[in-house]
Amino acid sequence: MTSLTFYGGTGEIGGNKFLLKDKGANIYLDFGESFTFGQDFFYNYLSPRTVNGLEVYFEFNMIPKISGLYNKDMLKATNLKYQKPNIQAVFISHSHSDHAGHLSFIDEDIPVYMGHCTHKLIDVYTKLYKSFQDIGTHNNLKEFKSGDKIKIKHLEITPIHVEHSVPGAYGFIIKTSKGNIVYTGDFRMHGPRADLTKEFIKKARDSKPIAMLCEGTRMSSDVEHNYTEEEVEKKVNEITKASKGTVFGHFAMSNVDRFMSFYKACIKNKRIMVIDTRFALILESLKEHISILPDVRKDKNIKVYFRIAKTCTFQEKDYSPWEREYMKNMITYKEIKKNPKKYLMHMRFAALMEMVYLQPKSSDFIYSSSEHFYEGEENLEERTIWENWMKHFKITFHKAHCSGHADKAALTETIKTINPKVLIPIHTQVPEEFKKLHKNVILPVKNKTIEL
User: 2-221+404-451 sits in which CATH class?
Assistant: First the structure.
């Protein structure tokens, strides 16, 4: 019997946890945290105690209660008895927390497979933001690259790279006893590496799948125009060219395509790109795998920003050992304040305090991250703070963004091209919309199993 059990990612965006069973082989496709995880019972300082492992998570059904999956520490205060794992592998499609965020719960002896770039990103984010991303301890963590053939008992799993808003993203083609199953992961087709996704679609089509798990993040939005990364770069360039002061840009530090769009705008307008030490560490960690990235220590178009700390004199002892590695390419608020029009600076929410020292005038701020942040009501408090800082310093606000997910037209074309026998919509709030695109759609239900 070949079956899929869905422990997340059904009727919601994110939280992917899919268990594939086939003749004694048991593997998970992703093991992520839902974007709404715990929001019905916890808020701000009211948060689950982690000292007792999964006790609170089980109490509120925040995570599935499954034997032979979790590690001993996670079960020590629960009524679920520890059993040796009966899972042969967990395959992670990419580094985002809604796909990898609950890896820290699973038994350390379960093999975990992820792309080499995904592993690098997770490692550096764990170093910088351990409370935000920590995948725990794994005794058998294996890296893969596109096209590898990975054997798990009689199953054969082939990861194929796709384009997403984070590097190192993959879809999977899984050869089972019943036929091939395709899992798209998260993907898009409107960036500079659309060729990656096109290759995945071709190979998925050629595999003649009996079933496809297809993400549908943007299936619900009929947009007049699907903005591309090229158009984002053009808009950033126009804003930068017209600005009479420092240009500030906000986007995810793991979004390499977006960094390159801003970086190219700097070069075209003879400005210097300013990033902080955390961003510098992330870019340097990825350069081994992404050759187009500049050398943050030596590139004349980049400076690494150092905040005021401890002695307020920018001495080595004020900073962590890893930060000191970038001091030869250091810039502070003093240099930027003297010649504000010379710089384009990446600005994180947590770094807004630097505005007090920079005292920007005639500046522009480009918001270039998730549209949901500015549309979702749950983000009102943080969004208001952003806006208040912009108003206080009289900074002109702009938006220049394109999604990391395929739009409805691209999803439609992907489904038509691959043409699976069964289509299973995941990672979407409107799974029923898929019925308009395929004659045989099965809607997954959380904690329920579909037999193929």
Answer: alpha beta
